[in-house]
């Protein structure tokens, strides 16, 4: 197990028993992969993706062996939210040059083109399942992303270093303690 997998387990949890990828290959197309043994651009099907899934499954690169989406790791995410069924891909992302501490390591819920997850309530259920921990959660449509957790008031105080009102003091303190090593600019919608 490599360091990223340990961090993913620490922040998202271990694999949920009984949840399998099955026919889902969303990650094989949507995600950008940049590892020493394999790379591909985002929103491009993997060269090894065939009609029945991975054509080199037994010999697939380490990154493909070790990585699992949030649906496989977070039991509170509804079973019906499997990426190929819901049009939502939950992943833990790592920004090499984050603009602020809430972008460095964060959960991203990406709505795929054609998904009705907002209209049918699946997106809200997934966000509810994720926004209960000290990990930033962003929602993206692939072109734009919006910070969903912590809320704007808390994020503003965390990033600006301003004293929060009493009702927010404990939450702001918890976020600041978690991200004390980072400094940053105010949170805005990111492109």
Note down, in words, how this protein is organized:
The protein has 191 residues and is an alpha+beta fold. Strand 1 (33-35) and strand 2 (38-40) form a beta hairpin. The two termini are 33 Å apart. It has a 4-stranded mixed sheet. Helix content is 31%, strand content 17%. Helix 8 (152-160) crosses helix 9 (169-178).
- Give helix % range: 25-40%
Quickly count the helices: 9
Q: What is the number of beta strands?
A: 8
Ranges where pLDDT stays below 50 over 5 or more residues in a row are: 183-191
User: Strand pairing plus helix content: what structural class?
Assistant: alpha+beta
Overall 3D shape: globular
Tell me the strand percentage band: 15-25%
Spatial strand order of the main sheet: 5-6-7-8
Instruction: Please give the radius of gyration in angstroms.
Output: 17 Å
Largest sheet: 4 strands, mixed
Order of helices and strands: HHEEEEHHHEHEHEEHH
Mean pLDDT: 89
Span from first to last CA? 33 Å
């Amino acid at each position: 197990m490599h360091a990223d997998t340990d961090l993913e387990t620490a922040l998202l949890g271990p694999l949920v028993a009984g949840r399998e990828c099955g026919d889902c290959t969303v990650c094989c197309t949507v995600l950008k992969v940049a590892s020493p043994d394999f790379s591909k651009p985002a929103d491009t099907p993997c060269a090894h993706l065939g009609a029945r899934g991975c054509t080199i499954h037994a010999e697939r690169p380490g990154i493909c062996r070790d990585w699992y989406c949030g649906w496989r790791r977070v039991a509170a995410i509804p079973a019906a939210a499997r990426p190929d069924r819901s049009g939502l891909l939950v992943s833990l992302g790592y920004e090499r040059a984050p603009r602020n501490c809430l972008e460095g390591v964060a959960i991203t819920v990406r709505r795929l083109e054609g998904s009705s997850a907002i209209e049918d309530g699946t997106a809200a259920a997934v966000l509810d399942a994720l926004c209960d921990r000290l990990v930033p959660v962003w929602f993206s449509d692939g072109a734009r992303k919006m910070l969903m957790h912590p809320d704007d008031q808390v994020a503003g105080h965390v990033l600006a270093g301003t004293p929060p009102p009493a009702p927010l003091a404990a939450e702001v303190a918890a976020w600041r303690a978690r991200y004390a090593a980072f400094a940053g600019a105010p949170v805005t919608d990111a492109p």
